[in-house]
Amino acid sequence: MLRPWSLQIQLRPQSQTPLYLQIVHSFIEEIRRGRIGAGTALPGTRTLSEQLAVSRKTIIAAYDELVAQGWATSDSTRGTFVSPDLPSLPRWTSRAAPSLGVLGGDGFSWKKAPQVIPWAERSENYLIFDDGTPDPRLAPVEIIARTYRRALVRTARRSELGYGDPRGAFALRQAISTMLNSERGLATTASNICLTRGSQMALYLCSVLLVRPGDYVAVEKLTYPPARTAFARTGASIVSVALDDGGIELDDLERACDEFPVKVIYLTPHHQFPTTVSMRPERRLRLLELSKRKGIVVVEDDYDHEFHFDHQPLLPLASASLDRTVYVGSLSKLISPSLRIGYLVSSPGFVDDVANEIMLIDRQGSQTMETAVAELMSEHISSYARKVHGIYKARRDHFATVLTTVFAQEMSFTIPAGGLAFWVQFKTPLALDELVAAAYRERLKILPSDNFSSDGEAPYALRLGYASMNEGELTEAVQRLHRAYKSVKR
Amino acid sequence: MLRPWSLQIQLRPQSQTPLYLQIVHSFIEEIRRGRIGAGTALPGTRTLSEQLAVSRKTIIAAYDELVAQGWATSDSTRGTFVSPDLPSLPRWTSRAAPSLGVLGGDGFSWKKAPQVIPWAERSENYLIFDDGTPDPRLAPVEIIARTYRRALVRTARRSELGYGDPRGAFALRQAISTMLNSERGLATTASNICLTRGSQMALYLCSVLLVRPGDYVAVEKLTYPPARTAFARTGASIVSVALDDGGIELDDLERACDEFPVKVIYLTPHHQFPTTVSMRPERRLRLLELSKRKGIVVVEDDYDHEFHFDHQPLLPLASASLDRTVYVGSLSKLISPSLRIGYLVSSPGFVDDVANEIMLIDRQGSQTMETAVAELMSEHISSYARKVHGIYKARRDHFATVLTTVFAQEMSFTIPAGGLAFWVQFKTPLALDELVAAAYRERLKILPSDNFSSDGEAPYALRLGYASMNEGELTEAVQRLHRAYKSVKR
Questions:
Q1: Which of A11, A211, B20, B230 has the largest CB neighbor count within 10 A?
Q2: Which DSSP string do the residues of B378-413 spell out, in sequence order?
């Protein structure tokens, strides 16, 4: 029998938790901490109701609940007791009061995940040269919202809100297949296509399925860090291959493949990430021939095919063959990153196994959203694409003009034929980390080249995404960058 | 010089691809296949325009494009030539015509992904006993659509459609934290919470971060296959632990942990999957004590906490401590699986590393959808939850009545105190695979116990999700099941 009653019950009348449940939780906590042992008699309902200044009905509800849950037993004549089945436990080590508060002290260890590039949070009054994302303010929100609503109503009526094909909604795979065939020269059906949550998941799936610990993966000297890190995370050794203004350097790649048993070549042939150059046709042919001769898989990341301004984009490598190519794309650049829809294209056999892996990773995406995006693609997206194409081309040209004016002597760059970023190189050496810090003081966030290096070396260069800022913001951002540059070079 | 012109150009006037681009693609295809070598002169624009019966302007546009892309060079007096820089290539091996068609012949090998349980596709006239999903027809579609639209407009205006915190939108992490603290006795802040794409991704992340090849993971004898498979995929050995109507059997678990260096215990204490039983309080205390004594991480999958009908749900194990517990939940059951939003709760240090891993897997979820769901949770969800709670309770009771009536002598089950599925056991042995086949002939899909076995043994039992069917459908489904049963037992 509990004598001088020392239960620590602090009721919070403002809480959303009903009072009787707060009492239940307190008792359980006391039992867990070893402060009330098995078989102990609980105080009478009248006593406790007076002590806590709550109605007796509340105490009775709490005791009923404790009995229902198995923490207590009740005897109509003798009262309520802590269940005798409970094991006798050492007192729970003291811990912070079970109120709101950050819990520290991790009691277990785990494999540390690698750091990728820091994500750029948008913050008040800061301008950001991101890595080439579209302008969220231009997203066709009314059309997306309307289409999503229709898809939601329709899929609910058809009972399709449950679980389905891990490859994703058929309508969207079909729409992407049609687009790839008509605009990018691929020969696909829906069975070649698996939808993913952003293109990053497609790259991750490649790393999981194609690479075993100890395998070699060739990447460009400057490359997309989350891809490189995903491959390295699976245990691959990364081989860094030279890069120039015609894309990946084929002689060096051949040498690398002779020296190491390279299993996968990861590259961004269309608008090289981060340098924006297009891979030259003759190199594409040599690469495909090399891949075939050596049995190497080419993972072709076509992350921003959509925006190409000066001529038609080169056809993807995957248009030649899907036999040894995994093609990765996304709808983030065209519609909105908030949709989180990417896709992977390869042979149906590989795609089926990708789908099995997806069953483990996240089962599937949102069928409703995928259905909505399929409708967007077939009905609305081409006129929207034309509109933003014009806006981004104008921003690109404006950005080039401002850069040339402000950094006349100090910087060199080529206006990119497509994509949403510039690659600018400083003509004289400077400390990139100091430039980043100085820019931050000017309320400007930038991504210097060392973020992208796959071999530790990095040129004095920056990747400057221009598309998410309008003309006025671009001018202001370049001026801030120049002030930062001046302060570092002084 | 190309003599008798043998280019295979088949123009498709109905295609969305402009004619000149079709010509460009055909030329590139011919070059790739080795049918036109480097330096070859292309036919005159007039000749080709006559041959193809298209305007000469179209041919000129095509040639300009080939030059722009680097496939050809042009000389104002002599004409257009295939670029001399292209390597001389062996003829591309013959392949299917580059028209629509399934590409076969996988030219590379990959790690085969394991098969999980087959996903149940909804099909015309079939009824499905799923594994316990809510009824999509009851999803609050108008509220979801309206809230999503508002969130989309708001986040676009605030420039938040770009990339953000890989742990997910703060507002939703905060809303989930508040809900866990007030309704489930946890002590969390938003920093304890990471959003995932469905609870499956949370389980996958646990497998990736907690398990190294060779580690041991203990699971219940009957368990949730995608969780078991995810742990096995990471290289863990699975230890199967006995299970009875009080949940996981603690003596057997202790023995397993003495025999093997178990690193992780995965379990579903609230409504055991698939058997629906609740883990008894004294076992919970013993489990927490064991976890502490041996330094074992408990992964607590609380996959359908929301629907509990007969008394208040037991508090999760994670309410005692997050130091050695990873708590996994989802909003699929309460709102709609189509949202694909789950969450993982643990110490902030572990959560931060989970976020780093997410940067590799899919970077983040949809901030817009997460923001919308936060608003749903704070404003609309409790009245909706009350409504469906009543509906599902009625369906549960109806289902129990029908099962008892139709299978009077042949089946035993306990009405589950919560959750959206029944676990029914046949009183006499029968061939489960034959039952599945017979049910399919009756246009009914079922999930027999062997799907859930972690040691190859399985009782004569089924998990029957009842919530996605209304009363009439449930009656019909039970009758179909009985006909199938009769045909197997005949």
A1: B230
A2: HHTHHHHHHHHHHHHHHHHHHHHHHHHHHTTTTEEE
How do beta strands A193-196 and B447-448 pair?
unpaired
CATH assignment, B141-380: 3.40.640.10
* Chain B touched by A365 (CB under 8 Å): yes
Enumerate the domain spans of chain A: 1-92, 127-138+383-489, 141-380
Amino acid at A430: L
User: How confident is the model over B399-413, as pLDDT tens digits?
Assistant: 999 999 999 899 999
Q: Selecting from 3.30.70.20, 3.90.1150.10, 1.20.1250.20, 3.30.110.70, what CATH number does the domain B127-138+383-489 have? A: 3.90.1150.10
Find the mean pLDDT for residues B254-258. Answer: 96
Scanning every residue of chain A, which has its alpha carbon at the shortest distance from the alpha carbon of B15?
A182
Chain A: residue nearest B196 by CA?
A: A362
For A1-92, CATH number? 1.10.10.10
Q: How far is CA A100 from CA B157, B212, B216, B322, B351, in A?
A: 33, 33, 34, 13, 17
Q: CA–CA separation, A90 vs A86, rounded Å?
A: 12
d(CA B4, CA A169): 48
Q: Is A285 helix (H, G, I), strand (E, B) or coil?
A: helix
Measured at the CA of A207, the angle between CA A202 and CA A209, to 5 degrees, comes to: 90
Maximum distance among all alpha carbons in chain A?
95
Give the Cα separation of A109 and A86 in Å (integer).
30
C-alpha distance from B100 to closest chain A C-alpha (Å):
5
Q: Cα separation of B323 and B389, whole Å?
A: 33
Q: What is the mean pLDDT of residues A266-287?
A: 94
Candidates B312, B341, B358: best to mutate against A (most CBs of A within 10 A) is B312
| Interface contact B69-A281, CB threshold 8 A | yes
Q: How far apart are CA A31 and CA B315, in angstroms?
A: 13
ipTM of the complex model: 0.82
pTM for this structure?
Answer: 0.83
pLDDT in tens, B426-447: 999 999 999 999 999 999 999 9
- Greatest mean pLDDT among A100-114, A305-319, B31-45, B281-295 lies in B281-295
